[in-house]
Amino acid sequence: MAEPVSDDIQQPETSHQLRFDAICKTFPGVRALDRVGFEVTAGTVHALMGENGAGKSTLLKILAGAHRPDSGNLVIDGEPHVFQSTAQALHAGVAVIYQELHLVPEMTVAENLYLGRLPASRGWVRGRELQKKARAQLAALGEEISPHAKVSSLPLAQQQMVEIAKALARDARVIAFDEPTSSLSSREVDRLFTIIARLRDEGRVILYVTHRLDEVFRICGAATVLRDGRHVETFPSLANTSPATIVNRMVGRSIDDVFHYTPRPRGSKALDVKEIAGSGLSAPVSLSVAQREIVGIFGLVGAGRTELLKLIYGATRPRSGQIEVDGKTVHIRSPGDAIAKGVVLCPEDRKNQGIIPVRSVMENLNISSRRHFSPLGFIINSTRERANAARYVQRLNVKTPSLSQLIVNLSGGNQQKVILGRWLGEKLKVLLLDEPTRGIDVGAKSEIYSIIYQLAATGVGVLLVSSELPEVLGVCDRVLVMRQGRLVADMPRDRADAEAVLRLALPIQLNSDTAVPSGACAS
Amino acid sequence: MTAANLPPDPQATSNLPDGSAMRTSRFSMIRSVWDSAGMLLLFLLVFIVCSVAVPDFLTRNNMIGLSLSVTTVGIVGCTMLFCLASGDFDLSVGSVLALAGVVAAIVTNSHGMVLGLLAGCCAGAAVGAVNGLVIAGLGINALIATLATMQIVRGLAYILSDGNSIGIADMRFLQLGNAMIAGTPAPVWIMAACFVFFGLLLHKTVFGRNTLAIGGNREAARLAGINVTRSKIIIFAMQGLVAGLAGVVSAAQTGLGDPKEGQGLELRVISACVLGGVSLTGGIGTILAVIVGALIMGTVQNAMDLKNVPTFYQYVASGLILLAAVLLDRLKRR
Prior knowledge:
The complex is a heterodimer.
Chain A: E1 17-27, E2 30-41, E3 45-49, H1 56-64, E4 71-76, E5 79-81, H2 86-91, E6 94-97, H3 109-113, E7 120-121, E8 124-125, H4 127-140, H5 156-169, E9 174-178, H6 186-201, E10 205-209, H7 213-219, E11 222-227, E12 230-235, H8 243-251, H9 255-259, E13 269-277, E14 285-290, E15 294-298, H10 305-313, E16 320-325, E17 328-330, H11 335-340, E18 343-346, H12 350-354, H13 361-366, H14 370-373, H15 382-395, H16 412-424, E19 430-434, H17 442-457, E20 461-466, H18 469-475, E21 478-483, E22 486-492, H19 498-505
Parallel strand pairs in A: 3-10, 3-11, 6-9, 9-10, 15-20, 15-21, 18-19, 19-20
Antiparallel strand pairs in A: 1-2, 1-4, 4-5, 7-8, 11-12, 13-14, 13-16, 16-17, 21-22
Chain B: H1 19-22, H2 26-53, H3 60-69, H4 71-85, H5 93-111, H6 113-137, H7 142-161, E1 166-167, H8 171-178, E2 180-181, E3 184-185, H9 186-204, H10 206-216, H11 218-223, H12 228-254, E4 256-257, H13 265-276, H14 287-306, H15 311-332
Antiparallel strand pairs in B: 1-4, 2-3
Helix pairs in contact in B: 2-14, 3-14, 4-9, 4-10, 4-12, 4-13, 4-14, 5-6, 5-7, 5-12, 6-7, 6-12, 8-12, 9-10, 10-12, 13-14, 13-15, 14-15
């Protein structure tokens, strides 16, 4: 294949091979993977790319045995497998190294390396043998980590090395990395890549999940792109492939099919944020949203987008800065204050921050707006509770068997509609949306977009955060880009194209001979 | 209908297809009855079995005794319901009960009954407010925080009383615990009033709904604009106040402010709530669950007493009942 294994390195004893064979997986309301099949051979690092929601993590979890596919299987070295548990996957020689490491922080490095298989006689751990084996394993990796050290005392990069050593201690044939560099310094990244290269030369199958193009071209010799749960293309060699081609495959072209965008006339400023600063931002941020305008914020995970919304919403206290709503300065100290001023948020993490899972659709809908129709703001009026909930269930086309259904039983799209519906009883001025369509299938997505358009048309200013590039480009009138805690660009819809936006969002700039689009503001 | 052309906001609510009602099979009807009133039916079953099988059970005197025996757990359970519903619990209630009894006895003897009553309740409310501030304001785990106050407050009760029970001289105070109103002892009326008041507070007010929302998902509730910190402080202060009230009532029943009173009460109250179907993880709870939970515990206890079951066996039996109730609840949620 493209990336030749240098001859002076000792030839691998065996060369392993992994094939995904027509893997399907459906979650309630979402088809996460649709007949995904491709082959990963040893001798080269194989990149798995795609946007959020493309199905990368689901595929990885199936590989790790954490999810079971509805159909299809994994073929490792010619032998088909359907893992029922993570233990089976480990046994078959598959190791997945997740972004959040799976180590026991309060145990020693040695104990972690042999977790579940401590050398023992009659139940008593053989301490000396454990230390010896652990030391040998770490030495083989070229790491100077004491096997006695507590994992929690190590820096993150070394913890990651422990995780890799753990995979090697099991002699894993297939090692998958999930965004391994997201919290490493560039020196640590160099070190990691040296080790990945060595694992590759040993004949192991290496799958490398990322959305960083620079890394793909640095370490990977082949790549597979997923989009919307489907296999788009596998590049067996990246020698003649340009980053633009890959971005193009990741984003797809069919933007207008889902979005049905039509321009709206803008009004005066609905939201004006001046020099807001606080946790998660590395520089003060200023931005404004006009009435009837939809402004998108694009950025990678960790770019500070969610933190920015939370500062505006009063969910975290800003250190400094000023906020104007409809031209009037407002003091927002809590979400309650924000709501009273007509500023509302649909949070990013629907399950943990949006829904109250054990309560009904009606309860979830009325949670905030009931104060407008409860006598004294205190006493529940059951009739009006029902009427209010029924009205928004119907208006937003929420598919639920009844108002008393527990919200957790609805699909993601319908849950999101309920959370949107929560705010429709307020005097809305600014709608903050954080990843409003994450994990939602295409049909429900387009319904949510049209709700957003309708709200905008009534005069609401919308600030929409997304890590899905087509969404930002397809829905918004204006696109802001955030990178590493600061706002780096502000461009109108017609000047925002996929590649430029993605480049601006990447933390390590590609050899940027492409001009930064005009309208970009350096802050 | 697609959302692309939303219908103009119909005021009519009746055309919402209420599928659950339309598709009601016999099974789902049984299920919904079981979900809402399963433990009540179980209580009635237990009650009928006891009436038939245990001599002297269904007599007027025994019924009065039974209802008196559940007053403390019932009263304190009203506010424990709020603690549990909001996703926390309070282990200090037994100690608060003792402190309130001691304070009430001391103040009654020196300043008269009215002040004594107030002082007892206020002492409870103060402890509760401290619990709330520590838990919600400082973010300390409720288990640790109330475990600490449980011991501190028990200590205070001993210090104030010098380790002895304090007799109450004022006969009017004893009336509170022993008077019969319409053939029913005063403490039972107080418990009934608590059930009504806190039942309405939980089910019919915004505060109650917010409590359930906080227990269901604290962060979501906060982002929906609910003032979580303030709600929790109020909940714990209420819990303290009501535990104080229970302490005053129990002192009035015995005529003693006893610093040893209420040992293990916290676990009996939490058991009763969970037995009735209040979720330990928060978000689910009804006043009916507390009533039924307290009644089942009281009835079984009473029947075992009448049958002369030795105390040692009674412990085993109450533990088994709790375990069975939780297992039933688990099956229910499948």
